[in-house]
Input
Amino acid sequence: MTGDVAERAAAGFIELYGVEPAGRWAAPGRVNLIGEHTDYNDGFVLPFALPLRTVVAADRQDDESWTVWSELSGETITFCADDVAEPGRVSGWGAYVAGVVWALRDAGHPVPGARLAIASDVPLGSGLSSSAALEAAVLAALLDLGGLELPAERQPRLAQRAENVYVGAPTGIMDQSAVIRCRAGHALFLDCRDESVEHIPFDLDAAGLAVLVIDSRAPHRHADGEYADRRRSCETAAKALGVPALRDVTVDQLDAALARLDDEVTRRRVRHVVTEDQRVLDTVALLRAGRVRDIGPLLTASHVSMRDDFEITVPEIDTAVEAALAAGALGARMTGGGFGGCVLALVDANSAEAVATAVRTAYAERDFTAPNTLTVLPAPGATRLN
Ligand code: GAF
Output
């Protein structure tokens, strides 16, 4: 896979279908600066979009069928109206595409038939939201091709329904919101209860800083089951406490709330979510005040909370965080759902390479598969390219 991702999508389209696509639509991957496992608790998150993108080249077809080629698998699949009449009939990567068609139709939109070619720079299974990027790029393409009206603020819920109901993954609203609503140079402060957003300036260059993303390459260990288990545990705790969601417990109320729960594991889960919501608010306050350097300790505290209270980290991830901090990172934390995926480290721009080297060395000492590293700046959300 060489060359620009948008060119690869168009070239794939032309090779397969013998004509130019009507257009190309892109959606990015994301990292979450802070606010993990807070979205499905109606809480706060602060993700930003990555410069890595998924691109869909597409044109409209008159019949109700969808043909999709993916660069990654090299496969072409076709599905028809019957396959999107109810969830679950298309599986594998095609389910994310069929899920978007299903969700649009289920919401009453007359979705046009289409031919699509997909290329992507967002690595799969690294916790950078490759699935939300795919959903958002396909959604943007189908909306445009069909001349359908769906305001940007309503698109994340629809893409999330594709993932929750058609694909069957019980994720929250963060990833789809990030890849659709983020702006370049900003982090997206999202209230997951009412979906209101504020674009918070996150000017790393001006602060002489960089965000280093470290792909842990850790094999996902039962990530789906563990994610669903954490979600259930939070929902059960909210019920026991008599609140609609854990977002309704503040840090001031935390001790009293914990005293009402009789299970130690549940108490730890609740403590993570309640303190994490507060860390997002504190991070936003610092960024609003232009104090980018000062968010480091909050990032690290978030990691400790995920490691000790929410128990969603793995040895590779903890090693990367510890090595980054020991090499001078201002803060470091796992980002995303957990049990593998990526770490982000806030570093002085001129020490990014030294921090990356320190992580590689620590990995080699433990015989872990070498990590991939990348410095990133906040990029824009989903968009039409031409
Ligand atoms: C995954 C999910 F898709 C998100 O909804 C969110 O819960 C995240 O894990 C954890 O913060 O990315």
Notes: The first helix runs from residue 5 to 17.
